[in-house]
User: What shape does this take?
Amino acid sequence: MLKEERHKTILNEVALHNRVLLTDIAETLDVSIDTVRRDVKELDAENRLTKVHGGAIALGFINNSARNDNIYKLEDKIIIAKKAIKLLKDNSVILIDGGTTCVELATQLPEQLSLTCFTLSLPVALELLKKPNVEVIFVGGQLSKDAQISIGADAVHTLSNIKVDFGFIGTGYVDPVFGLTEFDYDIVQVKKAVINASKKTVLLSISEKLNSQHRYKTCDIGTIDTIITELDGNNLLLKSFKNQNIQIL
Assistant: This one.
């Protein structure tokens, strides 16, 4: 595979999943870790992604407060956010996870909507602070430098003591058989706690993540109450999820 083709594949994977591991890219490309490491280093030097220990991060993932072209599929994420807002009523108590789609939900919240919102995401919290009628409660803990969210025992313990009307979560991978999965075990533990803290769990996911899976399981697909994508609810890509008795928006 030519270097240009490898670079394109790496950028596509990073844009879609926000964070990727060098080992996963090497497996996908069927090349050595050293080759992938050199590719990622070159792309980082060209300011097309950010190289981190053992992997790479999308530029938009580490600069969520800026409205720019680095946010992958931003228009689709705006559609998802606006659909999610329709679930909310004044004085709802909600919990918003991390990730660019969840940040977009916080960004798109109407200023007149009164909410109490818990979040473990720094970028989400910063967007929520702009909303005059939203009470923001930050769930603290050890901060993940990559994901910019609270992780660890303190965050999980705090979440175990609350119960919100809606928990809005993102995911790296989602499959109708394998459920929600991630490559980061610490992130999975926090997402499990978010789900347990929610009366209803709403998954926000662009359609490109459908029918994909990774190492660590967050939950079975049946644990999710509602899936929101940018697609029309009758799209054939969603058929296998509809069969799981999940609301599709």
Remarks:
- Residues 3-17 form the longest helix (15 residues).
- Residues 64-68 have pLDDT under 50 and may be disordered.
